[in-house]
Protein backbone atom coordinates (compact mmCIF):
# COMPACT_ATOMS: atom_id res chain seq x y z
CA UNK A 1 0.00 0.00 0.00
CA UNK A 2 1.13 3.55 -0.70
CA UNK A 3 2.36 5.59 2.24
CA UNK A 4 -0.14 7.91 3.92
CA UNK A 5 0.15 11.66 3.27
CA UNK A 6 -1.07 14.15 5.90
CA UNK A 7 -2.30 17.41 4.38
CA UNK A 8 -2.08 20.35 6.79
CA UNK A 9 -4.54 23.22 6.31
CA UNK A 10 -5.45 26.21 8.49
CA UNK A 11 -8.74 27.88 7.59
CA UNK A 12 -10.16 31.24 8.57
CA UNK A 13 -13.01 33.04 6.80
CA UNK A 14 -12.29 31.02 3.66
CA UNK A 15 -15.85 30.52 2.39
CA UNK A 16 -15.23 32.34 -0.88
CA UNK A 17 -12.48 29.99 -2.03
CA UNK A 18 -12.40 26.80 0.02
CA UNK A 19 -14.65 24.70 -2.22
CA UNK A 20 -12.12 25.06 -5.04
CA UNK A 21 -9.38 24.01 -2.66
CA UNK A 22 -11.37 20.99 -1.50
CA UNK A 23 -12.04 19.93 -5.07
CA UNK A 24 -8.35 20.14 -5.93
CA UNK A 25 -7.60 17.67 -3.11
CA UNK A 26 -10.43 15.32 -4.03
CA UNK A 27 -9.07 15.29 -7.61
CA UNK A 28 -5.63 14.01 -6.55
CA UNK A 29 -4.45 10.91 -8.40
CA UNK A 30 -2.67 9.85 -5.19
CA UNK A 31 -5.57 8.77 -2.99
CA UNK A 32 -4.00 7.63 0.29
CA UNK A 33 -4.21 10.90 2.17
CA UNK A 34 -5.75 12.37 5.29
CA UNK A 35 -6.63 16.04 5.39
CA UNK A 36 -6.27 17.75 8.76
CA UNK A 37 -8.14 21.05 8.54
CA UNK A 38 -8.05 23.28 11.60
CA UNK A 39 -10.51 26.16 11.48
CA UNK A 40 -9.34 29.20 13.43
CA UNK A 41 -12.84 30.21 14.59
CA UNK A 42 -14.13 31.50 11.23
CA UNK A 43 -16.88 34.10 11.33
CA UNK A 44 -18.31 33.15 7.93
CA UNK A 45 -19.71 29.78 6.77
CA UNK A 46 -16.34 28.12 6.11
CA UNK A 47 -17.05 25.32 8.59
CA UNK A 48 -20.49 24.61 7.11
CA UNK A 49 -18.97 24.30 3.63
CA UNK A 50 -16.30 21.84 4.80
CA UNK A 51 -18.87 19.74 6.65
CA UNK A 52 -20.87 19.26 3.43
CA UNK A 53 -18.18 16.83 2.27
CA UNK A 54 -18.61 13.36 3.74
CA UNK A 55 -15.21 11.98 2.75
CA UNK A 56 -13.80 10.31 5.92
CA UNK A 57 -10.31 11.39 4.91
CA UNK A 58 -11.28 15.02 5.64
CA UNK A 59 -10.79 15.60 9.38
CA UNK A 60 -11.98 19.01 10.58
CA UNK A 61 -11.35 20.52 13.97
CA UNK A 62 -12.71 23.92 15.00
CA UNK A 63 -10.71 25.84 17.57
CA UNK A 64 -12.42 27.51 20.51
CA UNK A 65 -10.12 30.53 20.32
CA UNK A 66 -8.48 32.29 17.37
CA UNK A 67 -4.73 31.71 17.54
CA UNK A 68 -3.35 32.46 14.08
CA UNK A 69 -2.24 30.32 11.14
CA UNK A 70 0.84 28.89 12.85
CA UNK A 71 -1.18 27.67 15.82
CA UNK A 72 -3.81 26.15 13.50
CA UNK A 73 -1.13 24.36 11.48
CA UNK A 74 0.41 23.01 14.67
CA UNK A 75 -2.98 21.65 15.71
CA UNK A 76 -3.22 19.76 12.43
CA UNK A 77 0.37 18.53 12.71
CA UNK A 78 -0.29 17.11 16.16
CA UNK A 79 -3.14 15.04 14.71
CA UNK A 80 -1.22 13.94 11.62
CA UNK A 81 -0.44 10.23 11.13
CA UNK A 82 1.08 10.29 7.66
CA UNK A 83 4.64 9.57 6.64
CA UNK A 84 4.61 12.60 4.36
CA UNK A 85 3.58 16.12 5.37
CA UNK A 86 2.08 18.41 2.73
CA UNK A 87 0.74 21.91 3.28
CA UNK A 88 -2.20 23.54 1.52
CA UNK A 89 -3.73 26.84 2.58
CA UNK A 90 -7.49 27.14 2.31
CA UNK A 91 -7.43 29.36 -0.78
CA UNK A 92 -4.72 27.64 -2.84
CA UNK A 93 -4.97 24.79 -5.37
CA UNK A 94 -3.06 21.70 -6.44
CA UNK A 95 -2.99 20.14 -9.87
CA UNK A 96 -4.37 16.56 -9.79
CA UNK A 97 -0.90 15.02 -10.10
CA UNK A 98 0.70 17.09 -7.32
CA UNK A 99 0.90 14.47 -4.57
CA UNK A 100 1.72 11.63 -6.95
CA UNK A 101 4.56 13.54 -8.60
CA UNK A 102 6.08 14.90 -5.40
CA UNK A 103 6.03 11.64 -3.49
CA UNK A 104 7.41 9.68 -6.42
CA UNK A 105 10.24 12.20 -6.65
CA UNK A 106 11.06 11.87 -2.94
CA UNK A 107 11.13 8.10 -3.17
CA UNK A 108 13.13 7.87 -6.38
CA UNK A 109 15.70 10.42 -5.26
CA UNK A 110 16.00 9.30 -1.63
CA UNK A 111 15.16 12.86 -0.59
CA UNK A 112 13.76 14.20 2.67
CA UNK A 113 12.20 17.36 1.20
CA UNK A 114 11.09 18.53 -2.24
CA UNK A 115 9.46 21.64 -3.65
CA UNK A 116 8.01 22.45 -7.06
CA UNK A 117 7.10 25.33 -9.38
CA UNK A 118 3.80 27.08 -8.73
CA UNK A 119 1.64 29.63 -10.54
CA UNK A 120 1.05 33.01 -8.91
CA UNK A 121 -2.53 33.88 -9.72
CA UNK A 122 -5.13 36.61 -9.43
CA UNK A 123 -7.32 35.93 -6.42
CA UNK A 124 -10.58 36.06 -8.39
CA UNK A 125 -9.80 34.71 -11.87
CA UNK A 126 -6.92 32.38 -10.92
CA UNK A 127 -5.13 33.59 -14.04
CA UNK A 128 -1.35 34.07 -13.68
CA UNK A 129 -0.31 37.63 -12.84
CA UNK A 130 3.38 36.90 -12.37
CA UNK A 131 5.75 34.46 -13.97
CA UNK A 132 5.54 31.03 -12.33
CA UNK A 133 7.77 30.71 -9.31
CA UNK A 134 10.48 28.27 -10.41
CA UNK A 135 11.96 25.53 -8.26
CA UNK A 136 15.37 25.85 -9.84
CA UNK A 137 17.83 25.46 -6.98
CA UNK A 138 18.76 22.94 -4.34
CA UNK A 139 17.73 24.53 -1.05
CA UNK A 140 20.11 24.61 1.92
CA UNK A 141 20.03 26.34 5.30
CA UNK A 142 22.57 28.85 3.99
CA UNK A 143 20.67 29.99 0.90
CA UNK A 144 17.30 29.83 2.66
CA UNK A 145 18.53 32.54 5.01
CA UNK A 146 18.63 35.02 2.12
CA UNK A 147 15.31 34.17 0.51
CA UNK A 148 12.53 31.73 1.34
CA UNK A 149 12.12 29.56 -1.74
CA UNK A 150 9.84 27.11 0.08
CA UNK A 151 6.10 27.80 0.04
CA UNK A 152 3.56 25.68 1.90
CA UNK A 153 1.56 25.04 -1.29
CA UNK A 154 4.55 23.54 -3.08
CA UNK A 155 6.61 21.69 -0.46
CA UNK A 156 6.49 18.17 1.02
CA UNK A 157 8.76 16.48 3.54
CA UNK A 158 9.20 12.95 4.89
CA UNK A 159 8.55 12.56 8.64
CA UNK A 160 10.04 9.07 8.65
CA UNK A 161 13.35 10.66 7.77
CA UNK A 162 13.20 13.93 9.73
CA UNK A 163 10.28 13.83 12.18
CA UNK A 164 7.63 16.55 12.48
CA UNK A 165 8.46 20.25 12.48
CA UNK A 166 6.14 22.73 14.15
CA UNK A 167 5.57 26.44 13.64
CA UNK A 168 6.57 29.14 16.14
CA UNK A 169 3.32 30.83 17.20
CA UNK A 170 5.03 34.09 18.22
CA UNK A 171 6.37 34.89 14.74
CA UNK A 172 4.50 36.44 11.82
CA UNK A 173 7.06 34.73 9.58
CA UNK A 174 6.36 31.31 11.07
CA UNK A 175 6.73 29.39 7.82
CA UNK A 176 10.24 30.72 7.17
CA UNK A 177 11.33 29.90 10.73
CA UNK A 178 9.96 26.37 10.40
CA UNK A 179 11.74 25.75 7.08
CA UNK A 180 15.02 27.07 8.51
CA UNK A 181 14.72 24.77 11.51
CA UNK A 182 14.06 21.84 9.19
CA UNK A 183 17.06 22.70 6.98
CA UNK A 184 19.26 22.68 10.06
CA UNK A 185 18.54 18.95 10.28
CA UNK A 186 18.69 17.90 6.64
CA UNK A 187 21.43 18.97 4.22
CA UNK A 188 19.29 19.73 1.18
CA UNK A 189 15.82 20.18 -0.26
CA UNK A 190 15.41 19.31 -3.92
CA UNK A 191 13.57 21.06 -6.77
CA UNK A 192 10.88 19.44 -8.89
CA UNK A 193 10.85 21.51 -12.05
CA UNK A 194 7.16 21.19 -12.84
CA UNK A 195 4.30 23.59 -12.15
CA UNK A 196 1.99 21.59 -9.90
CA UNK A 197 0.19 24.19 -7.76
CA UNK A 198 -1.58 27.54 -7.86
CA UNK A 199 -0.96 30.19 -5.25
CA UNK A 200 -3.77 32.74 -4.90
CA UNK A 201 -2.25 36.20 -4.49
CA UNK A 202 -4.67 37.93 -2.16
CA UNK A 203 -4.72 41.71 -2.18
CA UNK A 204 -4.58 41.81 1.62
CA UNK A 205 -1.98 39.04 1.95
CA UNK A 206 0.63 39.72 4.61
CA UNK A 207 3.31 38.11 2.43
CA UNK A 208 2.80 40.79 -0.26
CA UNK A 209 3.19 43.75 2.13
CA UNK A 210 6.96 43.56 2.21
CA UNK A 211 7.51 46.98 3.80
CA UNK A 212 5.26 46.07 6.73
CA UNK A 213 7.13 42.92 7.69
CA UNK A 214 10.76 43.97 7.54
CA UNK A 215 10.84 44.01 11.35
CA UNK A 216 9.21 40.57 11.53
CA UNK A 217 11.79 39.21 9.12
CA UNK A 218 14.61 40.77 11.14
CA UNK A 219 13.28 38.95 14.20
CA UNK A 220 13.50 35.64 12.29
CA UNK A 221 17.27 36.02 12.41
CA UNK A 222 17.69 37.91 15.68
CA UNK A 223 15.25 36.03 17.93
CA UNK A 224 14.70 32.65 16.31
CA UNK A 225 18.12 31.99 14.73
CA UNK A 226 20.04 33.76 17.52
CA UNK A 227 22.15 35.87 15.15
CA UNK A 228 23.91 39.09 16.10
CA UNK A 229 22.33 42.44 15.22
CA UNK A 230 24.75 43.01 12.33
CA UNK A 231 24.27 39.52 10.93
CA UNK A 232 20.48 39.84 11.28
CA UNK A 233 20.51 43.16 9.40
CA UNK A 234 22.63 41.61 6.64
CA UNK A 235 20.21 38.74 6.05
CA UNK A 236 17.17 41.01 6.34
CA UNK A 237 18.59 43.22 3.58
CA UNK A 238 19.20 40.18 1.37
CA UNK A 239 15.68 38.91 2.03
CA UNK A 240 14.15 42.32 1.18
CA UNK A 241 16.06 42.55 -2.11
CA UNK A 242 15.19 39.00 -3.12
CA UNK A 243 11.55 39.58 -2.14
CA UNK A 244 11.38 42.62 -4.41
CA UNK A 245 12.82 40.64 -7.32
CA UNK A 246 10.44 37.75 -6.61
CA UNK A 247 7.33 39.89 -7.02
CA UNK A 248 8.41 42.65 -9.41
CA UNK A 249 8.28 40.88 -12.80
CA UNK A 250 4.63 41.38 -13.59
CA UNK A 251 3.31 40.36 -17.01
CA UNK A 252 2.61 43.24 -19.42
Automatic annotation (TrEMBL):
Transmembrane segments: none
Keywords: Transferase
Protein's UniProt keywords contain Transferase: yes
Stretches assigned to the Glycosyltransferase 2-like domain: 6-129
Source organism, top-level taxon: Bacteria
GO molecular function: hexosyltransferase activity
InterPro entries: Glyco_trans_2-like, Nucleotide-diphossugar_trans
Coiled coil: none
Keyword check for ATP-binding: no
PANTHER family cross-referenced by the UniProt entry: GLYCOSYLTRANSFERASE (PTHR22916), UDP-GLCNAC:BETAGAL BETA-1,3-N-ACETYLGLUCOSAMINYLTRANSFERASE-LIKE PROTEIN 1 (PTHR22916:SF3)
This protein's name: Glycosyltransferase
Amino acid sequence: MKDLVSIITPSYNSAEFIEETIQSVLNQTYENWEWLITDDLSKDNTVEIIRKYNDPRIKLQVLEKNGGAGNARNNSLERANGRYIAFLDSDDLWYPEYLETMITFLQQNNAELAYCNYSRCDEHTMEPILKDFEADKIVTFSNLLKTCRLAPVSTIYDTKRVGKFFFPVKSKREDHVMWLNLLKVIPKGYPVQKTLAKYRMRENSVSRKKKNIIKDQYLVYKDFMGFSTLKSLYYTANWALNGFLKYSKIFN
